[in-house]
Design a protein that fits this description.
The chain has a domain of about 140 residues: Winged helix-like DNA-binding domain superfamily/Winged helix DNA-binding domain (Arc Repressor Mutant, subunit A, Orthogonal Bundle). A hairpin with a 5-residue loop joins strand 1 and strand 2. It has a two-stranded antiparallel sheet. It is mainly alpha-helical. The radius of gyration is 38 Å and the shape is rod-shaped. Helix 1 packs across helix 7.
């Protein structure tokens, strides 16, 4: 069994819808933007989910879609079967009780049944509410990580600015000292010149 984009995108869309349902009816446009899914394709998936009894449409201003059941009552298996059909990895007539010439002598049917049962158990034991909770945790963790990064960047920027200010202050101080030394040297030269002139005149 390999899930198509119907199952993958449809599951993402329903998680998004459930996560934002407390804000009111959720539009396909907002889901498409957040999940980076084509809105026209998303509308096809929503129609399938509506037909399967998993979502309800809300008309009028602020309309959109809501879950037809509580998120805790919708399993991943419900969603995938609505969009994909059977989730069996192997379609075996012997498992289904249909006529099969090799049914009595075929032992591989037990393997196929175990695989199919394992898939069903896996998807039917995960509820939409659990995925919404995990989504909220992930968003919170990402927000905290982003805040830490911004704080670190701000601190680094402040450190660099402080370093630049100190360097600028040192440079200005050095320039003032150089000007003072230069002025002192100029004064000494002038005084020396005056003394020489006086001495020359005295001579």
């Amino acid at each position: 069994m390999k899930l198509s984009t119907r199952g993958r995108y449809g599951l993402r869309a329903l998680i998004d819808l459930a996560a934002h349902e407390d804000e009111g009816a959720v539009s396909t446009q907002s889901i498409a933007q957040r999940q980076n899914i084509s809105e026209s394709y998303l509308e096809q998936l929503i129609r399938m989910l509506k037909k399967g009894g998993l979502v309800l449409s809300v008309r009028g201003a602020g309309g959109g879609y809501r879950l037809a059941k509580r998120a805790s009552e919708i399993s991943v298996g419900d969603i995938l079967r609505c969009l994909e059909g059977s989730l069996d990895a192997v379609e075996c007539p012997a498992i289904e009780g249909s006529d099969c010439d090799s049914a009595n002598a075929c032992v591989s049917k037990f393997v196929w049944k175990r695989i199919n049962d394992a898939i069903a158990q896996a998807v039917d034991s995960v509820w939409l509410s659990e995925l919404v909770e995990e989504s909220h945790k992930l968003q919170t963790a990402q927000a905290e990580e982003s805040h830490k990064l911004q704080t670190a960047q701000a601190e680094e920027s402040h450190r660099q600015q402080s370093t630049q200010i100190k360097k600028s202050h040192k440079l200005q101080t050095a320039q003032k000292e150089n000007k003072g030394n230069s002025a002192a040297r100029d004064g000494d030269e002038i005084n020396a010149r005056i003394i020489r002139e006086i001495q020359n005149r005295g001579l």
